[in-house]
């Protein structure tokens, strides 16, 4: 492994997977704000900060463990460890240190139930998903998606001290979104997973089966997304947003289902890439709508 000069601050920051952290922070922030218990702004800021640090710790531990397959995959070969800018032992030390720091500080800032849930989330992503599921089963994304679905629940527990139906529905939204999101990516990035020996569904069951799975999961996701509109934390903004987004998402999944490989290769997976790009906005728009409804409720608009 060739070294390409001294590591910069940006290389260490990249270990924390900042793009993934953006989603973690935003969904945790929404979970905290839509909770029925008011939180002091400073305590809320600290809670989101430590949840973000915990998410970054998970990313560092994942990069430490996955350095060998990251080096093989084109999409990840420029990451800090495979490119030689950061050593595996440095990434491990950063991940473990930030894990302990984030859990303890979240417990001190809010409550130990939230801290315990954050600790479980880090363990689930680093050990259950990265070390076990990712390399052993095509259900890696299905089960492993739970790791990314916990942040709004952690935010909710930080505010209320307990888990509720509303927090479970927010968890379900992200959990069910994860498989179609990643399987769409896998459809046009399959060679990466082939080369790395990662048993993604496209590798183990083929693209036609993956297309069917995407459609089924998207339909189930749409049901849960609209179901969330019936909960106390949502209002008309979320309802309209959920109906519109999920109608479009299901239509996109249907288009993917109807295509064969000749069509897909002919336009360089244009439909799949559009579905994937839309999936990136999907969660932000749903949780953003929850945030708008919460603000309108507190302003007395729905009173």
Automatic annotation (TrEMBL):
Catalytic reaction annotation: heme b + (2E,6E)-farnesyl diphosphate + H2O = Fe(II)-heme o + diphosphate
Metabolic or biological pathway: Porphyrin-containing compound metabolism; heme O biosynthesis; heme O from protoheme: step 1/1
Signal peptide as annotated in the record: none
Membrane topology: Multi-pass membrane protein
Enzyme Commission number(s): 2.5.1.141
TM annotation in the entry: 20-36, 42-65, 86-106, 112-129, 141-163, 169-188, 214-231, 237-257, 278-301
Keywords assigned by UniProt, alphabetized: Cell membrane, Heme biosynthesis, Membrane, Transferase, Transmembrane, Transmembrane helix
Entries under CDD domains matching the protein: PT_UbiA_Cox10
GO biological process, one term: heme O biosynthetic process
Matching InterPro entries: Protohaem_IX_farnesylTrfase, UbiA_prenyltransferase, UbiA_prenylTrfase_CS, UbiA_sf
Main location as per UniProt: membrane
GO CC terms, sorted: plasma membrane
Record's subcellular location: Cell membrane
Pfam families: UbiA (PF01040)
Top-level lineage group: Bacteria
GO molecular function: protoheme IX farnesyltransferase activity
PANTHER family: 4-HYDROXYBENZOATE SOLANESYLTRANSFERASE, PROTOHEME IX FARNESYLTRANSFERASE, MITOCHONDRIAL
Assigned protein family: Belongs to the UbiA prenyltransferase family. Protoheme IX farnesyltransferase subfamily.
Note: Carbon 2 of the heme B porphyrin ring is defined according to the Fischer nomenclature.
Subunit structure: Interacts with CtaA.
Role: Converts heme B (protoheme IX) to heme O by substitution of the vinyl group on carbon 2 of heme B porphyrin ring with a hydroxyethyl farnesyl side group.
Protein's recorded name: Protoheme IX farnesyltransferase
